[in-house]
Design goal:
The structure is a single chain. 40% of the residues lie in helices and 34% in strands. With 65 residues, it is an alpha+beta fold. It has one domain. Strand 3 and strand 4 form a beta hairpin.
């Protein structure tokens, strides 16, 4: 799985991997299956990020929402 984009958002996802692994799995599956190929998530301060999935490249991109 390739992940690129906003460094802050990527760090939040890394924290989810350690603290909330089930939520991280949910975000990944949501991004892969939603019609718009996006899943929104927040950090502890309430900053919003988007996890976008490109099915042709099989890559994820993180952006600030």
């Amino acid at each position: 799985m390739k992940l690129s984009g906003d460094n802050e958002g990527i760090e939040v996802l890394k924290k989810f991997k350690d603290v909330k692994p089930e939520y991280l799995k949910f975000l990944i599956k949501s991004a892969q299956t939603n019609f718009d190929r996006k899943a929104e998530f927040k950090d502890e301060q309430g900053n919003k990020f988007l996890l976008k999935y490109d099915p042709l490249k099989k890559e994820f991109t993180v952006e600030k929402a």
